[in-house]
Amino acid sequence: MRNTRVFFLVWGSSESLVQVIDLRIMMKCEITRDIQAAANLIQEGELVAFATETVYGLGANALNPEAVAQIFAVKQRPHFDPLIVHIYSTHQLAELTSEISSTAARLADVFWPGPLTLVLPKKKVVPDLVTSGLDSVAIRIPAHPVARKLLESTQLPIAAPSANKFGRLSPTCANDVAEQLGDEIKLILDGGPCTVGVESTVIQCVGDLPVLLRPGGISLEEIQDCVGEVRLAEIEDYAESNSPVSPGMLPKHYAPSTRLMIVDHPDQLPETGAIGVLSLFPLEVTEFRDCHFSAQQILSPTGDLKIAAANFFAALRKLDASGIDQIVALRLPEKGLGRTINNRLERAAAS
Ligand code: TXA
Ligand code: MG
Predict the structure, then answer these.
(1) Which residues contact residue 238 at a Cβ distance below 8 angstroms, ignoring those fewer than 6 apart?
(2) Which of 45, 109, 111, 325 has the CA that lies 20 to 30 A from 89?
(3) Minimum CA distance residue for ligand 1 atom 19
(4) What was the pLDDT predicted at 21?
């Protein structure tokens, strides 16, 4: 248990005008590697934040609507926004889904366990709250050993969105979770920093053609190499329809508190104000006017897009905490995980 000291000044009797009372407030949250403690809480209908290879998740028993309702409450997440259900093995698919197309089966075979989520026709056993009333359910088999042990120990499907307040930056280590949700949950199952660092790729496999709903930890190129043609969902598909939104597609998401703008070239960096720059490579500052950065985060000095993805949310967090007026991000190459990072940047920049 972590605790925090809070001091209250109280007007007292005539002898002691002011008394100082030291109240030790026990914060609810424990950061631990104890899988069994986490599994017990999930089985009791409580929430647990846990490590996955993409980002930390805020998990509950997916078959228990009251437990799932707490996820929405703690995240302040709108109910139109469906959750991903995490499972240990493909053997659990038959319980939750009514149909697995040959495309879905191929994707599952190649990319599970891993950062891929498949949206599949659902069975009635999956509560409407999990799927926001849709007749499909999003399923993922994570690769992180801590997530896998938790799923194995509970023997339950675990519904889990990223363990952050709705719309804010996703957590990639246990402390990130504690900062946003530490007062509201009992336990964070620590598995170290996330190695993929961006959320899973979400592919809808309900019709003939797979649809990329959210770019993520598996690149579009890898998906295309596996199954051929993939339709790319457009933001307009969601924004202009009355159907529940896939919120990875919401224009504003993954937002730091500091204003963020994206530029295509260092020439476009603003000339005034305290700016923090986010870029893939180190910038040759002298080449670009006499611009003085107050802060700078480099995602991968060698330009490796997977390393860039692993560093992305932590880098944004550091810039956000550095007291600057504005974060300026240089757009990454629109390929591989560069496409995923650009997608997150665009949503972080939307106002
Ligand atoms: O890597 C990840 O995917 C992480 C870890 C914890 O697994 N989870 C995560 O969950 O990013 P969340 O809730 O932040 O994002 C879930 C995405 C949303 O874009 C949601 O709209 C979409 O999946 N989704 C879930 N169920 C869906 C459904 N039935 N149809 C369409 N989209 C769905
Ligand atoms: Mg999220």
Answers:
(1) 245, 246, 249, 250
(2) 45
(3) 248
(4) 43
State the Cα–Cα distance between residues 325 and 274, nearest whole angstrom: 5
Q: Which residues line ligand 1 (CB under 6 A)?
A: 52, 54-55, 57, 81-84, 115, 117, 119, 131, 134, 136-138, 140, 160-162, 199-200, 202, 213-214, 246-248
Q: Are 209 and 284 found together in one domain? A: no
3-state DSSP call for residue 246? Answer: coil
In a domain, 23, yes or no: no
**Which ligand has the shortest distance to the CA of 249?**
1
Q: Say how many Å lie between the CA of residue 202 and the centre of ligand 1.
A: 7
Among the atoms of ligand 1, which is closest to the Cα of residue 131? 29
Distance 57 CA to ligand 1 centre (A): 11
Domain that holds residue 75: 30-238
| 147, 49 contact by CB (below 8 A) | no
Per-residue confidence (pLDDT) for residue 28, from 0 to 100: 74
Task: Please name the amino acid found at residue 77.
Answer: R
**Would you state the pLDDT for residue 284?**
66
By 3-state DSSP, what share of the chain in percent is helix, strand and coil, each rounded to 5?
A: 30, 25, 45
Q: What are 136-139's contacts with CB under 8 Å, separation 24+?
A: 136/204, 136/206, 137/82, 137/85, 137/96, 137/97, 138/82, 138/83, 138/84, 138/85, 138/202, 139/84, 139/85, 139/86, 139/87, 139/93, 139/96, 139/97
State the ligand closest to the CA atom of 140: 1
Number of separate domains in the chain: 2
Q: How much distance in Å is there from the Cα of 30 to the middle of ligand 2? A: 22
Closest ligand to residue 344's CA:
2
Ligand 1 atom at minimum distance from 213 CA? 32
Domain boundary among the residues 177, 204, 238 is at 238
Is 148 inside a domain boundary?
yes
pLDDT confidence of residue 18: 44
Q: Tell me the two tokens of residue 259.
A: 């204003």
Distance CA 260, CA 328 (A): 6
Residue in 246, 249, 343 to alter for ligand 1 test, most ligand atoms within 8 A of Cβ? 246
Residues of the chain with pLDDT under 70: 1-27, 235-252, 284-292, 351
